[in-house]
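testing teh design pipeline on a random one, pls ignore if ur not involved
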C-alpha cells in the first residue's frame, strides 16, 4: 500500500490473536571478554578468544561546537550555517525546512513530515541531517552536548486503519531508549501488558532507501501464525539489543520454523512454558528474520550464546531484508500493533548501535 502524506498521524491498537511457540533446548556458553564487551562463540566450540567474533560498534558523527545549553529539560532546535538542502533549477525542493518553532522534512512526493522534539535533547539541522544532542540537564545520564540520535525521514509505518503513513523514524542511543521504555512501562496499568517494542535495527546507514514498518499475523508461519511487527529494508543493517532487562542473547541459526535466525533472551528459558510471565514480559520478545545473518561480514554458521547482560544498543549481528519482533509464549494471546511500538508522538523509535 502506498504511504499517504500526512502532517500528524495517530497510532492505535491491533487485533488479538492466539500465538504459540516451543523453545528448543540450547547450551549456555558465556563467552565474555575481559574488556567489558561480549565475545561470542559458536555453541559447542572452544575457539581461542583472539579469533572469536565480537560485537562491533557503529561509528557516529562527532558534535562540533558547544552544545547542551538552554533551558533544562526543554527540547530546542537550531540550524547550522550550512544550507539545509542543495537543489538544482529543475529539481523539486526536498529536505529539511523550518516551520514555526520546529522543522519539517519536505519529501519529493509533497509529503510534509514533522521532525519531532525529544524531551531533554536539542535538535540541530546540519545540511541534510537532523541530529539530536543532549541538553545539560537531560534525564538519560548523558553528558551535555553528547550525540543522542538522528531523525531519518524516509520511514513509513502501518496505521491502525490499515493504511501506511510517512512518519519518519527516530534512531536513538541505548541510554535514551532504555529510559523511554522504562517510562512507558511505568504508565501501563495492566501488569501483563507491560511490554513495548523498540525497533532493534539501526537504520542510519539505510541512506536514501525507504524503511517500512508494518504489522501482520504471519510471523513464525506454521507456529500459530504469530502477530508481529516487521521492519523491511534494503541491504544489510545492524541488529541491536533492545531489551533493557535482558540476561544476554542467544542467536539461533538452525532454520527453526520459517525463519533463518532468531535472537532470544536466555531469561526466557527459565520461565514457565505456555504463558506470559508478568514479571518478565519484555524477556519473552523474540527477534527473528529470513535474511542472511552475519558478524563483521562473516556469515553466522552456528549458534552464538551470550549469557550475560548486554547493554541496550549493543550490536549483536547484521541482517538483510527484514527483521521481525513478536511476543512469543505458547498459548498466550497478545496485541501487537502500532500502540506496542515505542514512539515519540507517531514516530517509531529505532535503537542506535553503540
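output:
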Amino acid at each position: 500500500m502506498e504511504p499517504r502524506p500526512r502532517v500528524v498521524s495517530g497510532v492505535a491498537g491491533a487485533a488479538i490473536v492466539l500465538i504459540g511457540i516451543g523453545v528448543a533446548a540450547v547450551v549456555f556458553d558465556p563467552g565474555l571478554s575481559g574488556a567489558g564487551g561480549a565475545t561470542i562463540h559458536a555453541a559447542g566450540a572452544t575457539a581461542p578468544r583472539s579469533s572469536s567474533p565480537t560485537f562491533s560498534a557503529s561509528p557516529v558523527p562527532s558534535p562540533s561546537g558547544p552544545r547542551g545549553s538552554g533551558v533544562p529539560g526543554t527540547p530546542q532546535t537550531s540550524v547550522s550555517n550550512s544550507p539545509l538542502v542543495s537543489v538544482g533549477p529543475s529539481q523539486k525542493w526536498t529536505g529539511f525546512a523550518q516551520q514555526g518553532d520546529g522543522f519539517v522534512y519536505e519529501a519529493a512526493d509533497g509529503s510534509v513530515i514533522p521532525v519531532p522534539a525529544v524531551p531533554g535533547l536539542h535538535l540541530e539541522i546540519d545540511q541534510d541531517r537532523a541530529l539530536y544532542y543532549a541538553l545539560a540537564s537531560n534525564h538519560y545520564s548523558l553528558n551535555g552536548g553528547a550525540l543522542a540520535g538522528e531523525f531519518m525521514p524516509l520511514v513509513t509505518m502501518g496505521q491502525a486503519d490499515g493504511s501506511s503513513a510517512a512518519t519518519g523514524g527516530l534512531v536513538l542511543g541505548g541510554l535514551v531508549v532504555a529510559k523511554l521504555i522504562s517510562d512507558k512501562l511505568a504508565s501501563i496499568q495492566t501488569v501483563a501488558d507491560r511490554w513495548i517494542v523498540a525497533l532493534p535495527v539501526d537504520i542510519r546507514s539505510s541512506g536514501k532507501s525507504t524503511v517500512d514498518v508494518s504489522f501482520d499475523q504471519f510471523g513464525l508461519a506454521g507456529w500459530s501464525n504469530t502477530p508481529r511487527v516487521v521492519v523491511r529494508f534494503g541491504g544489510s543493517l545492524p541488529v541491536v539489543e533492545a531489551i533493557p532487562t535482558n540476561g544476554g542473547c542467544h542467536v539461533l541459526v538452525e532454520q527453526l520454523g520459517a525463519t533463518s535466525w532468531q535472537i532470544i533472551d536466555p531469561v526466557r528459558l527459565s520461565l514457565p512454558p505456555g504463558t506470559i510471565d508478568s514479571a518478565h514480559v519484555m524477556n519473552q520478545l523474540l527477534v527473528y528474520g529470513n535474511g542472511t545473518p552475519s558478524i563483521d561480514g562473516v556469515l553466522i554458521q552456528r549458534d552464538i550464546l551470550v549469557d550475560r547482560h548486554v547493554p541496550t544498543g549493543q550490536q549483536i549481528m547484521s541482517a538483510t531484508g527484514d527483521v521481525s519482533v513478536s511476543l512469543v509464549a505458547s498459548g498466550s494471546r497478545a496485541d501487537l500493533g502500532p500502540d506496542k511500538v515505542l514512539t515519540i508522538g507517531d514516530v517509531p523509535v529505532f535503537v542506535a548501535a553503540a
